[in-house]
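Take the subject:
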Amino acid sequence: MPETHARRRYVTAASTSYTLWGAAGWNIVTTDLEQYWGKDLSGYDPDGPLPDIEPADGELDPSRGTLSLEHRTGKLQRIAQWRQRGLSIRELVIDVQPRHNVFVGTPGDIADEWTRYVTARAVDGFNIVPQLLPGTVEDIVDRLVPELQERGVYRTEYTGATLREHLDLPAA
């Protein structure tokens, strides 16, 4: 796949995303918003307005939740600002998704860049955000992983029977 085609796929996915993943993917991305309301939002229309409900009482306590600390306080104000902007749930999900480094290109181009990070010991892995992929996880498994294996930065087999053995750690 040429790099320009890969970039077009990424731009399309980033701007129209979440329909590619159906209900399962939508549930993944709405989980973030549910942390603001403390309620299941799966019954709401993703292209409709934000829920006209207030957060659950316990959700306003900044000591609760898995959101970063700066997002645990001021939830009512943040929700009010989102409503003022007139965003749909889908638009808000896209708007608030954390921005990560994005690698776009052919499988070979991405493998080259990832190899550079790995060999420089700058990383020990990469997080894949399925709902933001312009394709599918199968693209990674079938196209990117073999490129990484050819470069020697992704294992082709496991060396032991336990995680401890795979990581070459001493027996407990």
About this structure: Residues 22-37 form the longest helix (16 residues).
